[in-house]
Here is the input.
Amino acid sequence: MAEIFVGVGSNEDRANNIRRGLEALGARFGRLRTSPVYESGALGGAGADYFNLVIAFDCNESAEAVFDALKAIEAAAGRRRNPEPGLCTLDLDLLTCGDVVMQSDRFSLPRSDILEHAFVLRPLAALAPWARHPLTRQTYHELWAAMAPQAPALVEVAL
Here is the structure.
């Protein structure tokens, strides 16, 4: 059984869409472990601020099956692939699937956002500080400690 980490984000009706997304994820995958929720600016400054968090669950399914389920949950939440600039109802990004390292035409594991964006790494480090990145083998706590000094502001919020 692999531990799965998923990045969750929304900047349109944020609290509502995240709550509904978490309900759908729980119904599909069972017990979820969740990080705190953080508010951050949209990438590139276009659009409303985001709420972001990371969830974890244990699963026996393939990375492809998990990815497909995440895309189906996004679609059910009204996710549009070409929305108005800066609007996102629900974004579910497969970050890791155990220690799987892969690249396909649809997604890559581990997702590069982990090492590139504070809004992904900070909640991941809060949820699983001693888990290790599949490629660097550093803990998420170590990776966040290195990124934090130059990271943009993230504010912890309640849903």
User: Anything to note?
Assistant: The chain has one domain: 2-157. The mean pLDDT is 93.
